[in-house]
Amino acid sequence: MIGTESPVLAVLCGDRHPPDMDHIEATAKVRYTDERGLADALRGADALFVYDFLSTAVAGAWHAADRVRWVHIASAGVDPVMFPALRDSDVVLTNSRGVFDDSIAEYVLGVIIAFAKDLARSIELQRRREWRHRESERIAGRRVLVVGTGPIGRAIARMLRAAGMSVSGMGRRARSGDEDFGEVHASADLLDHLPGYDYVVAVAPLTDQTKGLFAADAFAAMPAHARFVNVGRGELVVTADLVKALRDGRIAGAALDVFETEPLPDDNPLWTLENVLISPHMSGDFAGWRNTLVEVFAENFQRWQTGRPLRNVVDKQLGYVPSGH
Amino acid sequence: MIGTESPVLAVLCGDRHPPDMDHIEATAKVRYTDERGLADALRGADALFVYDFLSTAVAGAWHAADRVRWVHIASAGVDPVMFPALRDSDVVLTNSRGVFDDSIAEYVLGVIIAFAKDLARSIELQRRREWRHRESERIAGRRVLVVGTGPIGRAIARMLRAAGMSVSGMGRRARSGDEDFGEVHASADLLDHLPGYDYVVAVAPLTDQTKGLFAADAFAAMPAHARFVNVGRGELVVTADLVKALRDGRIAGAALDVFETEPLPDDNPLWTLENVLISPHMSGDFAGWRNTLVEVFAENFQRWQTGRPLRNVVDKQLGYVPSGH
C-alpha cells in the first residue's frame, strides 16, 4: 500500500491490545476491535492484523471487508483464516513464521525427556512423599518422526538431534539428504513408517490434507511403547481415537499442547488418562512472545507502507508459507 | 592377581544379586553377602565387589579383610568406602566411571526444561482439570555453572551446550579453553561466581573439600531466579540451608536426586516445598544399568586376573579418578 492518506488498520484483539504499537499508531489509523465489532472495523480498512490468533471470527465479518488488501496473523498456523472467501481472493496473507520455533523445540525435547525419565510419576510420588526408585529410559538413539517440515518442525529436529536422538521428517514429498531431517518420508506413506519410531511429533499445518491425519489406523501402526506429541493443531488428531489408543495401551503416552476444542472441556477424558501430559496451548509462548509478535508485524507493516515485498507470505492454496519463501 | 588357585571374590549385594555373573563364577569363588555377613565373606577374600554401592558397611567389616588387594564399587562416587583404613592402605580401589554420564546428562537437561516450561505446574493444573495459559522461559542462552568437572559433569556440559545453553565449569583449579566447559572457575571462588548463573548443577565428588559446599552463603550468592540441581551427593548440600533459601525465595527452585539421608525421610520439608522436584536417586539408572555395571566390573576382573592395569583407578587421597586416567 503506497499512498498519501494514512492507511486504516483493523486489529482483532479483544480486551488485550497488542503491546508496542506506538510506532504503527503514528502512521496509521488503528481500529482495535473484538469479535463483535470486527465487521464495523473492517469496513473501509486497508489491512487486518489478527492479533487474537485463535479467533475464527474473521470469516463471519469478511463481508464487510470492502478494501482490505493484506491480512497478517500473529501465529504460525493460518487455519483460523483459511475460509474460501479469503483463500480465493487476491488479498495477501502473512503469518508469524519463526517466532515460536525454538521455544516449541525446547518444549518438545522437555516432554520427551519427561517421558523417558518418568518425571510426571516422580512428581506424583513426591506429592505422596513416596520414595520409589525406578529405572528410566535413555533418549540417545531413540527414533523420532517429526510430521511437518516447516520451520517449527526443523527447529524440533535440530534440537532433538543435538540431544542425541535419531530424527526423520514427514512432509508432502519424500526426499533424502535434507539438512535438518536427513530422510523425509511422504505423508501418504505415514502408516508404513510409523512402526519404526519411538516418538511421533505432530507439527504439520492444519489443511484439508492433514485434518484427522492421526486417527485409529495411525495409533494402531505405532509401536506399543511409542509416545505421541502434538504441538501443531488439535484437529490433526481424531481425539476419540487417541483416547481409545491410550486407554487400550496401543501407545504408551501423549504430550498434548493443542486440542480439537480449546480450552479442553472439563469432561474430556484426556485430563485424567495416565501417561498424558496436558499443557494449555503454550508451548511456544516464551516471556516476551507478544512483543516479538508485534515486531514481526511491524516489520511487515513498514514493508507494506513502503511497497516492499512482504515477508512470510502464505500460499493460500497450500495453507502455509512454502519453504524457501 | 596372578596365580593358579581360583581367587576368592566377595560381593556385597544384599538380596539382589548382580546379573550376568556366570563368567566370573566360572573363574572365581564368589561369596555373595549382605551387610551382616560381610566380615565373614571378607576373611580370606582376594577382592571385594561393592555392588550395593550405597552401603557404608565396608568400614565396619574391614578388620576381617586379611588379604583383599582390590575393591571395586558399582558407582561413580566412592565416598561410601572412603574410610581411613582403606584410603591409607595399598589396596587398589576402582569405580564405575562412565556408566551413568549420559543418562544423568539427559536427566539434568530434562529438569532444566521442566523448570523453564513450568511443567510441574502444568501437571498440577492437569490434575485439577484447569486450563491456565502461562508464559514460559527459554533455555537458549541461559547460563549454567556445573560444579564438578569429572566425566558426569562433562557429559552434562556437552548436553546443555548442545541444547543451546551457556555452560561453565567449576573444579579444583581455574583454567580456560577446556574442551567441554570453556571456562573452568576454581571452587575456592564459588561465591564470587554464583551471582552470574541461572542454573547451578552440583555433580562434584563428595570429599572433605566439597562436603557442605552449598550452604547459606552459596544460596545467598545465587540470583533470586536461579535454580539448583543436585545429581552428585546429598552431603554436598546443607539441607537446612537449602530449605530456608527455598522458603525465603532466595532461589527459585531445586531439582534434587540425592539427599543427605536416603530415602528422604517422610517429615523432610523438601517433599512439599513449591518449585522443588524430587527423584529417588535414579537420575543415572537407565534400564540395563545393572548389566552395564557388571560389564564394567567384569572387564576389570579379567584385567585383574591376567595382571593387566585396572581401569578407573581411584586416587584415594583425592577421592575420585583423576581426569586422563
Automatic annotation (TrEMBL), chains A, B:
- Which intervals hold domain D-isomer specific 2-hydroxyacid dehydrogenase NAD-binding? 110-283
Which organism does this record belong to?
Answer: Amycolatopsis acididurans
User: Which SUPFAM superfamilies has this protein been placed in?
Assistant: Formate/glycerate dehydrogenase catalytic domain-like (SSF52283), NAD(P)-binding Rossmann-fold domains (SSF51735)
Superkingdom, taxonomy of origin: Bacteria
Q: Provide an example Pfam family for this protein.
A: 2-Hacid_dh
Q: What is this protein called?
A: D-2-hydroxyacid dehydrogenase
> Could you say which protein family the record assigns here?
Belongs to the D-isomer specific 2-hydroxyacid dehydrogenase family.
Q: Show where the D-isomer specific 2-hydroxyacid dehydrogenase catalytic domain sits.
A: 17-314
Q: Give the record's keywords alphabetically.
A: NAD, Oxidoreductase
| The keyword NAD is annotated on this UniProt entry | yes
Q: Does the keyword Glycoprotein apply?
A: no
